[in-house]
Amino acid sequence: MTDHNNIPRTTPRASATFDEYTLSEIRRAAATGIYDIRGGGAKRRVPHFDDLLFLGASMSRYPLEGYREKCSTEVVLGTRFAKKPIELKIPITIAGMSFGSLSANAKEALGRGASAMGTSTTTGDGGMTNEERGHSTQLVYQYLPSRYGMNPDDLKRADAIEVVVGQGAKPGGGGMLLGQKITERVAAMRTLPVGIDQRSACRHPDWTGPDDLEIKIEELREITDWEKPIYVKVGAARPYYDTALAVKSGADVVVVDGMQGGTAATQEIFIEHVGIPTLAAVRQAVKALQDLGMHRKVQLVVSGGIRNGADVAKALALGADAVAIGTAALVALGDNDPRYAAEYEALGSKAGAYDDWHEGRDPAGITTQDPALMARLDPVAAGRRLANYLAVLTLECQTIARACGKSHVHNLEPEDLVALTIEAAAMANVPLAGTDWIPGRNAGL
Amino acid sequence: MSLSIKPVAATGETVFDLAAQPLRELNCALHKLSADTNETFWRVLNPAGRHAVAAGLDAPVIVEIDGPVGYYCAGMNKQASVIVNGNAGVGVGENMMSGFIHVRGDASQSAGATAHGGLLVIDGNASARCGISMKGIDIVVKGSIGHMSAFMAQAGTLTVLGDAGEALGDSLYEAKLFVRGSVASLGADCIEKEMREEHRALLAAKLEAAGILGEVDISEFRRYGSARTLYHFHVDNVSSY
Ligand SMILES: Cc1cc2nc3c(=O)[nH]c(=O)nc-3n(C[C@H](O)[C@H](O)[C@H](O)COP(=O)(O)O)c2cc1C
Description:
The structure holds 2 protein chains of 2 kinds.
Chain A (H helix, E strand, L loop, with lengths): L19 H13 L4 E2 L13 E3 L20 E3 L8 E3 L3 E3 L9 H13 L4 E2 L7 H6 L3 E5 L8 H6 L2 E5 L11 E2 L6 H7 L7 E2 L9 H15 L6 E6 L3 H10 L4 E5 L8 E2 H6 L4 H14 L7 E5 L5 H9 L4 E4 L1 H7 L7 H6 L24 H4 L4 H25 L13 E3 L2 H7 L17
Parallel strand pairs in A: 5-15, 6-7, 7-8, 8-11, 11-12, 12-14, 14-15
Antiparallel strand pairs in A: 1-13, 2-16, 3-4, 9-10
Chain B lengths: L13 E4 L5 H9 L9 E5 L16 E5 L14 E5 L14 E4 L15 E4 L12 E7 L13 E6 L15 E4 L10 E4 L3 H13 L12 E5 L15
Parallel strand pairs in B: 1-2, 2-3, 3-4, 4-5, 5-6, 6-7, 7-8, 8-9
Antiparallel strand pairs in B: 9-11, 10-11
Bound molecules: flavin mononucleotide (FMN).
Flavin mononucleotide binds next to helix 11 of chain A.
């Protein structure tokens, strides 16, 4: 007879398909009837720069002496047509993040930190504030579908113009700013009623396609007397064609933003399932420039998941001229800081995972318009932290470049890299480590 | 500022022939004009559909263009009065801040797109997306307008003496739309609204600015505006997202 009480039981097993997060999302959806909106970029693991390694110097390559032999980092953006190109001391820029999604103090801190390191910041969907203009020595003014706050005076006081076609977090999607963040100041800058949930258009209102964009760029150049570099920013989706078409449209600089790239607020499903990883986009964008004979003539800025100097060096080695950072810059300012752990928990999240930026209740005072929360962020101290962080990224990038024997970070090249995985080898078009195998090499990119 | 489409007394005329001189020189010369310039009247000949003619002006001057213009004529205009004796291409007066633009022919798509202020008068028809994302401009179209006009229009007025195409005022915010003729269909969240005395006065003011007050019967116009039901993301609005 079987003793039913003594049958060994299997361990409770959660489904890999229906994991904890998935179950919680189904419950959330069932309770609300509306999609989940959050900030940040793709959170799942995708092939990334971590899947690449530098080879360093060896018998046939000579390294440079750290601290003694120069390894330059300066970058000039906009050499194609602009009378006044942007001259950066480091190959790392601050990506466009809107006033509205970020507090005025956060924008000021970004300006302070970037300026201290000789690099640029970028406005965002919501217009230019005096704080960020005042604190940014080089400011890129975004030209977005919504055209919130767009005006010729700000266009003329910008140092460059970035026509935003898309973002990596949401290629094909528009913007969102929920009512909690539409304060009087934000509403006035956007010509909208206070407190509404605001959508930004996903398409530009007065041009569609590259032929129109060419005419649009001509107009922007005419208005600004051909002085300012004009960037075109695309979300990584079809980077080969998008880059080629941006060049055809007359861009000075192409910005390609991968799916890990952050956003202020977008549907979770959009963030995780639309667009391709940064790693997969860089080589295609570079190939387009090379095929057109425009590599280094039209500069390429890459963003989406850049965290350390190795990421910077890898993006440059694959052919980018510079990188842009969003999320990491916010973390340097103080986003998701463990010192606010209790408060993140009170919001149903935790330090390091907090992404309800759209709700405007950020304990760190960054993704909020609440005056009391915002006051927690000291723009001077936060700016200093950002400057420190940028300095570290630069030093790290130089460290790697010197180890590869390069006197300028732009001399890094794909030949300095190998891949740890077959996926990364195929995407980055570099050999799998320890082999000479580049998957798909003869099949074209 | 009082705007009128009646000819303004000119203090001498500067003539610029685009068949002989490059557009860059024209725009460059116009951008250099200061508020107290004596060169207050410019005549542009042979535009031949060129793009960005008289874009980015910021001085109280009059620029009269004899012939058709391409895209973005008088784009981002401030203060200036730009008159087009012909048809205008896509995005005439896009993002205008102030001033006056008068198209004596038809206008293509996205006329007055995203414009924050000033007055745009189109004697003929305007195509699709007239007044898209407008942010405070006043637009008066004497003919008809195409589909998706006033899409996401945020502020300002759009007055149409003729008919409006499909999906007028889709996802409208606070712009006010006045249409005398028929409307093929209304877009999401756009509804007909009561024409009260203040609206008749507002419409009269816009017609007067366009120089046609008294030529049309205000009682023939209907007013359209936002139902404001899409102002918050809500499960009840799912079919509209
Ligand atoms: C809070 C926040 C706001 C953003 N706002 C904008 C914006 O207004 N316009 C834009 O083009 N991109 C915007 N982005 C995307 C960034 O410009 C950039 O593409 C992205 O952050 C880069 O990826 P990373 O966050 O992994 O560094 C935003 C990103 C964040 C995190």
